[in-house]
Amino acid sequence: MISWLMIPWNQISRIVCGCFFSDRNYIHMMKANLDTLQKTLQELENGRDDLLGRVAIEEDRGLQRLAQVEGWLIRVETVGSHVNDLLKDGSAETERLCLFGYFSNDCITSYNYGVQVSKRLEEVKELLSKKGDFAVVAKKIPVPKAEKMHIETTVGLDTMVEMAWNSLMNDERRILGLYGMGGVGKTALLTRINNKFVEEKNDFDVVIWVAVSKDFQNEGIQDQILGRLLVDNEWKQATENEKASLINNNLKRKKFVLLLDDLWSKVDLNKIGVPAPTRENESKIVFTARSKEICNYMISDQQIKVDCLSPDEAWELFRIAIGEIPLENHHDIPRLARKIVRKCCGLPLALSVIGKNMAYKDDVHEWRHAIDVLNSAGHEFPGMEEKVLPILKFSYDNLKDVEVKLCFLYCSLFPKDFEIEKETLIEYWICQGFINANKYEDGGTNQGYDIIGLLVRAHLLIDCEVKTKVKMHDVICDMALWVESGFRKQQETIFVKSGAHVRQIPNAINWEIVRRMSLTDTQIKKISCNPSCPNLSTLLIRQNSELEVISVGFFRFMPQLVVLDLSENWVLTGLLRTEVLNLGSLQYFNLSSTLVTMLPVDLMKLRKLIHLNLEYSSIYDRLVGIATNLPNLQVLKLYYSNVYVDDRLMEELQQLEHLKVLTANIKDAMILERIQGVDRLARSIRGLLLYEIWAPVVILNTVALGGLQRLKIVRCNISEIKIDWKSKERRDLSWEGFNHLSAVDIFN
């Protein structure tokens, strides 16, 4: 204890007076203040949690939390930390008190501690009083000046990047055209220019990247520009003229750079709404094209030709693609590798694709065979078809299995740069018979992923940023269509249309010969024709935001149709009736994410059907007779539809002997318990929605539900969810948990 003789009298006087006469009375009020501090801190933390919940909702909508909200949260965190440190000493300090709490065994320490408690209490009260000030917690995120884009290692572009950059920094230059043959590296060059705006200091307000295409329409370009300029989506309902006005009003106040990738014809920037670059606004436009004529049409101030690589540059890029190991496996491989490089004629795309494919070849005979294959395709390439496609076809020819080749060619059914869900792609392949589902316990899914891996490694497919998706490079897609058409010697049997410019089914379709057809992301509102399609096996009508009705007769003459996908037509309500009778070959039927409320009357007569997807649909059908009428069903997806598993449906599901994949909705705890008791049925469950279940305890068994991937719990009143780790025989297992579970959502 500190000796009182060592303390100045004025401090002793202040402490004594503080004990008996002060309004604050830090020592006597210490215990009460501690209790109040603890309760007030809890209130503050509850307020913080409520605010964080509101912030999370707004951030999920793409908004950014306000600085004052972030500042308040940081202060709460800081003050909370100080208070918790203070509360740790609370018990020890209160034990020092004596004389009914008016005095202490160590008055100096207790007084100072009491002062700190009072101070922190005021801080907490102040923060608590301000928690209700945040009527608005987030704001729209400001559009970044430029967005850095991913790009692989490039060779031979440095000089052209500097040339293009210097041109853009020149006040006399307004429009810059980059042209060259397909696969030569124009997109890579434009990407590096884009990234230079991120890396180098400049005074431009915004840099906009637009991916154009051969079948571009003005609205497609407008949508990409507006998506870059505006955070909200209100503009999506505007007309083409209204979008042009929005773009013009936004850009005329800015010093902008517009990067247009892959022009195939003249783009009327005035109709799109882009102000012409002038000396006054100091804006710039850069575009890529395959021909110099496009540069002339666009009235470019400067044109830069992107040439193929020199022999040394081509060798450098090829070595990067294959790595050093193959070159060291045999003394003759480097000589053969240089032969392959010469066959590629300096085309970066071909060098990269073939090089990465050869990276796995460690036997000299494989390299000699590669030379033979390239020689048989010819080494003089006067045009695109002669230069690029045969070289790209080499990677296709190198696929050893016919089934893998069929799977690859099937990908040409999707629009260029379309991101394809791997799971959906595999489902198509299975139903088309490219994968033998009966050969594998999992129905062929794993083999499907193996094939996708082969195609990605062969650089015939590309992994997307979203790991569940892949896409096909547009030149690779050209090659696939080239192969499908018998190298341009036959009429095209694949029909693919997409984009805002498609407002009705084109009249030019030769329905008699078409084998596969895709209408994706169009503006078609109604399909009312009655075509005769004796050879059509796949029909994808997906993601058409305005499609409302498909007429009665459309499906009447499609006897060979195997895959029918009508998913993500969000406003589709009117659908086929009895004509489903004529779809006797149908194996895949997808109505997910539509407003269709009733299944076609004769759906239950499609006895070959193996895949039925009704997820996120408005279907109310109870699926009466599904076991009897659809005996071959292997995949049934009901997740987030209006179809719930009840006693009757569960009895029918148990009779589906081939069922391998089930996503289901359950609103009865007893049904949930029963379904876990049926091993084969429970093992098939991949997605599970528990809706409005009222039960004190719900048990989820990790063995029974071992294949579960998605779990959503909505509006349930469940006190406890127990996880059962034991098998049916009550054995402890060597693993714990749901090994495949990737998403759990709980909503009140």
TrEMBL record:
Alphabetized GO MF terms: ATP binding
One of the GO biological process terms: defense response
Coiled coil: 27-61
UniProt keyword Membrane present: no
Domain NB-ARC: 158-320
Domain Disease resistance protein winged helix: 413-480
Keywords tagged on the record: ATP-binding, Coiled coil, Leucine-rich repeat, Nucleotide-binding, Plant defense, Repeat
Classification via SUPFAM superfamilies: L domain-like, P-loop containing nucleoside triphosphate hydrolases
Domain of life per record: Eukaryota
Pfam family, one: LRR_8
Similarity remark: Belongs to the disease resistance NB-LRR family.
Protein name: Disease resistance protein
Higher taxonomy: Eukaryota, Viridiplantae, Streptophyta, Embryophyta, Tracheophyta
